[in-house]
């Protein structure tokens, strides 16, 4: 165990966060790693000191003990290398720097025996606006890789597979990297730990085939554009009895001719006549469930908005619904019958009378004159 202060070794403040500590260690590792400084024992010692400091400061429990009690609080044991999450961080730090990406194992790598999880798949599905609101049950056709049914993805019958002689079936070989012993994926069997003697005749030793499957899909009520639905196990089949991947269905909602959606609320515009706006009354409005009646008060102005509570989009968890907002737009008639023109002329005459002699523009001119 080095006598130097760990924070001083990495050149960070005592309140540095994990990201700053990792960044400092990366810089020190790049500068002092033995592979970068062959034969330089001083550089190797500084690399060991930096690794020791990082192993402690990157572990919350060890760091707390160190901050409270110093190195005696760590038990005085010599640095034995990284373990647990610290080793995973070490692999992340050095893997990119020195090209050791395949030497530390890690998630997603083929396990011993050749088993590996199948890939996840994406499927883009376009649906109508009302189907997104109400929900939908449908079927989709998905082309995917599936494990060969004859060899179960192992590429050969069990009797035609033998243990890899290069790694003894472990899938990894060890070698010395500086003062570390590093395990690397066996180059002979590529981590499978076994060798195929006679390939499966059904899949020609590939372990899989391409198949198109019809998959049932339930789209819940209330989904929106861009919603992803995960169908567990519907992705590509695993290799060597590995688990299948998942299928992610991405929804694309077509626009509606009448409705627009904002979160869980529905908006629409309904035209009304001058008479309806002036006199008020009941008008018909479209809703997600069909036509309904809406009472508008006398003297309603164009652009007025009314709310229909609970008539919007249902929540995905089934708890409540949004609202519907109806904006009325007073429609100006483009063609008038003789009777309509006479009525509007009489209305205009009454408006001039109510406005008083001189009319509106004369009064405005007098105000500013």
Let me know the average pLDDT: 80
Order of helices and strands: HHHHHEHEEEEEEEEEEHEEEEHH
Strand content: 25-35%
Number of helices: 9
The residue ranges in which pLDDT falls below 50 over 5 or more consecutive positions are 80-88, 96-113
Radius of gyration: 37 Å
How many distinct beta strands? 15
Helix content class: 25-40%
CATH H level, superfamily name of the largest domain? Heat shock protein DnaJ, cysteine-rich domain
The number of domains is 4
CATH architectural label of the largest domain: Ribbon
Can you tell me about this structure?
- There is one protein chain.
- The protein has 369 residues and is of the alpha+beta class.
- The chain has 4 domains: 93 residues, Helix Hairpins (Orthogonal Bundle), CATH 1.10.287; 133 residues, Heat shock protein DnaJ, cysteine-rich domain (Chaperone, DNAj Protein, Chain A), CATH 2.10.230; 71 residues, HSP40/DNAj peptide-binding domain; 31 residues.
- 28% of the residues lie in helices and 26% in strands.
- The protein contains 9 helices and 15 strands.
- The strands form 6 sheets. The protein has a 4-stranded mixed β-sheet with strand order 10-11-15-14. A 3-stranded mixed β-sheet has the order 1-9-8. It has a two-stranded antiparallel ribbon with strand order 2-7.
- α2 packs antiparallel against α3 and α2 packs across α5.
- The longest helix has 18 residues.
- It is elongated and about 105 Å long.
